[in-house]
Design a protein that fits this description.
Shape of chain C: globular
Order of helices and strands of chain A: HEHEEEEEHHEEEEHHHEEHHH
Order of helices and strands of chain C: HEEHEHEEEEHHHHHH
Shape of chain A: globular
Strand order of the largest sheet of chain A: 3-2-6-7-8-9-1-10
Chains: A alpha+beta (about 350), B alpha/beta (about 300), C alpha/beta (about 300)
Number of domains of chain C: 2
Distance between the termini of chain A: 42 Å
Oligomer: heterotrimer
Radius of gyration of chain A: 21 Å
Structural class of chain C: alpha/beta
Number of strands of chain C: 7
Number of helices of chain C: 9
Structural class of chain A: alpha+beta
Largest sheet of chain A: 8 strands, mixed
Distance between the termini of chain C: 37 Å
Strand content of chain C: 5-15%
Largest interface: A-B, 52 and 50 residues
Strand content of chain A: 15-25%
Helix content of chain A: 25-40%
Number of strands of chain A: 12
């Protein structure tokens, strides 16, 4: 059974003119809270949209990832009442339009971590948001400096990890519904689907063990430029470390969840003063291996999508791709010597 | 949805427990019944808090809870009282940081919040029929106390062999639970030892770090399982000493402490290699720890 | 400006220093097409030296990295880097015997097609302090290029504006801030092992990155930088949210210079202004004093 036959239950392709795309967006804005790429401070970011004309559907990959939609930078967990706690309610249907294939792949990783069976516990806040989220993916035709999604097995032209996929063309777009939730979002002249484009092969992976790479690789050299700002973790589409904080306003104590970053020394600092990761290279090693070794071991998928955001934003010029390539090269050399 | 641990340690008990399963971040209320000042010196201020929970739950020795004071924050503590006690549970808290300082200010009747139980536990079934050698340092005695009391319980005592206990502290005044020592020392088939770091007046027990003392306490290498708990440097030195002495790493257990936020393997803080101390631990055998990076 | 000649001379000097083993490493910048601008690079062999670049996008301040280097190091330093190095020497953060300054003439850098933050106010193309000189033409003499110095006079603006205007500008800037602390991390002056924001005893750190926490962070940082900021612009260069708060540090520097006659990054022998006390020090900065420094 071809991929197309499997998906055809949700209707045929819709060929849309530019105007029809606008009209359809206008239409969904009435029904949902829409998050889409918009310009803010000369940077393209995913943000909530009030006006269709703000939506920028083009080839550019937004500066920040759309993970805030399901895992906000700050969110309420609960309020403390006298004898009980009141759980924060997060039921708001959101439509995410224009998520690029790399960001869709990242969402799949977050799904595994927060709601997957392997994770043993289910994160209710994430899963509530995720259940009420409809995602319309969009193709990516711009390869930015530092992009390497193809090496991570992601096809920038198409992804099935969404409810419907919008392929931008020179005039207008083609919409392909992929799930029931995405069935009626955009409609235009119907057409039969072409054969789906299959995802590529993941070449940038680490097939190794902790013992083999933890001390044997030149981590200090890899992390030389790091200034410990944590920008890489804030804009990464798969980074998901967080902290819980209490704050009090007008006598009501609210517990909030905020993003945290493994690149800060304080992240692992014990109350007693002991810190298992005091050096910056140790923190960079944690970030790289968590993505390329620990998550694959626990969840079976690599937590890096090759979006290149960290590479483009790092003030110190650190490069996760070159680091992993260098580790691969060193491992290959070592194995050759052994043979 | 299943949140059963791999070792089956987590049992869904009642309605409230069910709620925890749905949202692992929601605590339930507890009231402080009693505050016991364990030790107080210039360097160490330790109190034990006896709590009554609105929705009591079962737990196993070695597991931990997230303990919070509204508006201040949350902290991770291992259970410090026997799971066989159903009327209350105890947590032992050393004053070190912002949250613990505020916890220490609480008194009888204060409301606190408890989330848990989390983590795996000491493999009590696997240890049945074996001799046990407990070694603890300082506050490390607290997370081991549930197991000590469980094994000493008349209903379970005959399942285990001889017991050796070596409790270490910096000075004679730094021992927590010292009111239990007499009781423990009188237990049948039990040897009870204490040690302090440097000589003190009137002290007739051992002096020196625990890893230098295990040679002085004869034990059956074939039949013994060691359980260690204390500060990381002590654990490292002690486990090396046990391994050199001939005890296989598979039969040495310890419990790790790491900074934690969520307790459910999401927040990333207690990640060591591909393990999360909160869901894969906190109890590890030295064989398991040997395979992990030593980032603890 | 002859970047090609400068680059060539830089590579020669670096290769020689490494070949002679005068230094163990040369701290500079290399081309990084993936990042999109030259990024910090540590050359350790004479071959590595060829990778060092010098062009109009080399705006990163490398002084911060010098504090982390082990072994003797040569640093490629433009005027603002040298000002920062001087500040760090005067605060006993660097051992002058441990590094060599390859001073390089600079008429200002460009970032995203505009003058890089700090460059519009730079007073001189010549570093204040050097061991080896690379002039604008690539020779070993300085050309002393005219500097635009179009930067804002913060003190003048502050005195003209109302308190509301000043507060509005500040709020508008911190509105974008997400408290990632990249500015602190990149700042030569922020070398505290444990920042006040990271102290465990007080919950300064972000609760929900609300305006209160942001004010606490930025104003305290500004006060800690009074008389210590060298106006290198590193804070604005690394900010991923486009927060421009350098004007506050600059305003404070202008105030300190005017009041106490001290300018950071000029004289490595000078006692830092916050380390000295004189009975007749002007009192304007004290409570009840009448000072306006941009906020």
């Amino acid at each position: 059974m071809s991929a197309y036959e499997m998906r055809s239950n949700f209707g045929p392709l819709h060929v849309l003119t530019g105007n029809q795309v606008r009209d359809a967006l206008e239409d969904v804005l009435q029904k949902f809270t829409v998050v889409a790429p918009v310009m803010a401070d000369n940077k393209l970011v995913y943000d909530e949209v009030n006006d269709v004309s703000d939506i920028v559907l083009n080839d550019a990959l937004p500066y920040k990832s759309p993970k805030d939609v399901v895992f906000p930078r700050v969110e309420d967990v609960m309020r403390f009442l006298e004898n009980r706690v009141e759980e924060a309610q997060v039921i708001k249907p959101v439509l995410l339009v224009g998520a690029k294939p790399c960001d869709l792949a990242a969402m799949k990783v977050l799904d595994e971590v927060f709601t997957g069976e392997q994770g043993r516990y289910k994160d209710s806040f994430y899963s509530n948001r995720r259940d009420f989220l409809i995602i319309v993916g969009m193709n990516c035709r711009e390869k930015k400096s530092g992009c390497f999604c193809e090496e991570r097995g992601i096809n920038p032209a198409f992804s099935q990890d969404c409810d419907g996929f919008l392929t931008l063309q020179d005039d207008g777009a083609v919409y392909e519904p992929l799930t029931e939730k995405g069935a009626d979002l955009f409609s235009g002249a119907t057409a039969a689907s072409e054969n789906s484009v299959s995802p590529g092969e993941e070449t940038l992976v680490l097939n190794t063990s902790e013992a083999e790479v933890f001390t044997a690789m030149p981590w200090e050299k890899y992390a030389e430029g790091c200034i410990g700002c944590g920008t890489c973790t804030f804009i990464c589409p798969t980074c998901h470390c967080f902290n819980l904080r209490d704050s009090e306003k007008k006598g009501i104590v609210t517990r909030t969840r905020v993003w945290d970053s493994c690149m800060y020394p304080k992240f692992t600092l014990h109350a007693g003063g002991h810190n298992p990761r005091t050096r910056k290279y140790e923190r960079f090693r944690q970030r790289v291996l968590h993505k390329y070794l620990y998550i694959p071991e626990n969840y079976g998928c690599t937590a890096c999508t090759g979006c290149g955001r960290c590479i483009r934003s790092c003030p110190g010029g650190l490069n996760i791709r070159n680091t992993v390539l260098d580790i691969q090269r060193r491992l290959a050399e070592k194995r050759e010597v052994h043979v | 949805m299943s949140v059963q641990h791999q070792d089956g340690s987590r049992n869904v008990q009642n309605q409230d427990e069910q709620k925890h399963v749905q949202n692992p971040y929601l605590p339930s209320r507890a009231v402080i019944l009693e505050v016991i000042q364990e030790t107080k010196s210039e360097t160490q201020d330790v109190k034990t808090f006896r709590l009554k929970l609105d929705a009591p739950f079962d737990y196993r020795p070695g597991q931990f809870v997230e303990f919070s004071v509204a508006g201040i924050g949350e902290c991770t503590f291992g259970f410090a009282s026997s799971p066989l006690i159903k009327d209350y549970m105890e947590l032992t808290v050393k004053r070190t940081g912002y949250v613990t300082e505020n916890i220490h200010m609480l008194s009888e009747g204060s409301t606190v919040w408890i989330r848990g139980p989390f983590g795996n536990s000491f493999p009590l079934e696997k240890m049945e029929g074996r001799d046990l050698f407990y070694v603890t340092g300082g506050l490390g005695l607290a997370p081991l106390r549930p197991m000590i009391d469980y094994v000493f319980d008349p209903a379970y005592r005959n399942r285990y062999g001889n017991i050796k206990m070596l409790m270490a502290a910096r000075t004679p005044g730094d021992f927590i639970f010292s009111y239990d020592f007499e009781k423990w020392g009188k237990m049948p088939d039990t040897e009870f030892y204490q040690t302090i770091d440097s000589p003190a007046e009137g002290w007739d027990q051992f002096v020196g770090f625990p890893h230098t003392l295990i040679e002085k306490i004869p034990f059956d290498l074939e039949k013994t399982t060691a359980v260690l708990c204390g500060p990381p440097p002590m654990i490292k030195a002690l486990s090396n000493a046990f391994v050199q002495y001939g005890l296989p790493p598979e039969r040495i257990y310890t419990t790790l402490e790491m900074r934690m936020t969520c307790g459910v393997g999401k927040c990333g803080k207690c990640n060591i290699g591909h393990r999360y101390v909160c869901i894969d631990g906190p109890v590890f055998s030295m064989a398991e720890l040997g395979e992990m990076p030593s980032e603890y | 400006m002859d970047y090609e000649m400068q680059s060539r001379r830089l590579a020669e000097i670096a290769a020689k220093l490494l070949e002679d083993e005068t230094v163990e490493a040369v701290l500079g910048l290399r081309n990084n097409p993936e990042a999109g601008w030259p990024t910090p690079y540590c050359a350790r062999t004479p071959q590595d030296a060829e990778r060092l670049v010098w062009n109009e996008a080399c705006y990163t301040n490398l002084a911060f990295y010098l504090t982390e280097m082990r072994g003797k190091t040569a640093i490629v330093a433009k005027p603002c880097d040298v000002r920062s190095i001087i500040n760090l020497i005067s605060e006993n953060q660097l051992d002058r015997d441990n590094f060599i300054i390859i001073g390089i003439e600079c008429e200002g850098k460009r970032k995203d097609g505009k003058p890089a933050p700090g460059c519009d106010a730079c007073p001189s193309s010549i570093p204040g302090f050097w061991d080896i000189a690379i002039g604008a033409d690539g020779s070993d003499t300085w050309c002393d290029l005219p500097m635009a110095q179009t930067g804002e006079n913060v003190t003048q603006w502050a005195k003209k504006s109302t308190v509301e205007e000043r507060f509005d500008r500040f709020l508008k800037e911190i509105n974008q801030c997400i408290l990632c602390y990249a500015c602190r991390q990149a700042c030569q002056g922020c070398y505290c092992v444990s920042c006040f924001m990271d102290r465990k005893a007080t919950p300064w750190e972000q609760i929900d990155a609300d305006t209160g926490s942001k004010i606490a962070f930025h104003l305290t940082r500004a006060m800690h930088l009074a008389g210590r900021c060298t106006d290198c612009g590193a804070c604005e260069k690394v900010c991923s949210s486009g927060v421009n708060l350098k004007y506050i540090y600059k305003g404070l520097s202008e105030f300190v210079e005017e009041t106490y006659g001290f300018k950071a990054g000029v004289n490595p022998e000078a006692t830092p202004v916050m380390n000295r006390y004189e009975a007749d020090d002007p009192q304007v900065a004290f409570l009840g004093g009448d000072c306006i420094v941009g906020i």
